[in-house]
What we know:
Elements: E1 7-17, E2 22-27, E3 40-44, E4 50-61, E5 64-69, H1 75-78, E6 85-89, H2 103-106, E7 110-113, E8 118-127, E9 132-138, E10 141-146, E11 152-156, E12 161-164
Parallel strand pairs: 7-12
Antiparallel strand pairs: 1-2, 1-6, 2-5, 3-4, 3-6, 4-5, 7-8, 8-9, 9-10, 11-12
Amino acid sequence: MIHGSDLILLGKIAGTHGIKGQLKVVSYSGERENFLSLSSVVLKELSGATETFVVAAVSIQGKKVLLTLEGFADINTAERFVGREVYAHQDQLPQLAADEYYWYQLEGLKVMTLKDELLGTLTSFIPTGSNDVYVVTSGDREYLIPAVEDIVVEIDLAVGIMKIDPPEGLLDL
């Protein structure tokens, strides 16, 4: 998320695809299909400058998202976007079920056990295919917490806490 805005970081443009202006986007989300709902994107340059573009087309190809921006129909005009981060306004993302969350909502939560022991802060995610793994850090210590109902028992976004019930051995060194 860009501080102070409703923009959500979705990925980064890794290159072009073909000669018709398609851009290969590496998705930072486990749900590449979220790109299919976008009508516009905000691209951020290394300098921090941002520009908004209308999405002409989106398709999923394996682990990559192919994005075409309106007005950029050939490789020569689209090449300038390689390396930029791709953001979208929060309201363009599909609504989730009550017990589902986007990664941006979970990042930064304090993670505690049911015994109120603070493990650390959820800092990143590892998509594995079957379930995500939450990376929780505290100083130089890192915990890998499987994102499954038996372990993650409560998420309170308003308070900023995730409670887990770790099985024996999960938190051992």
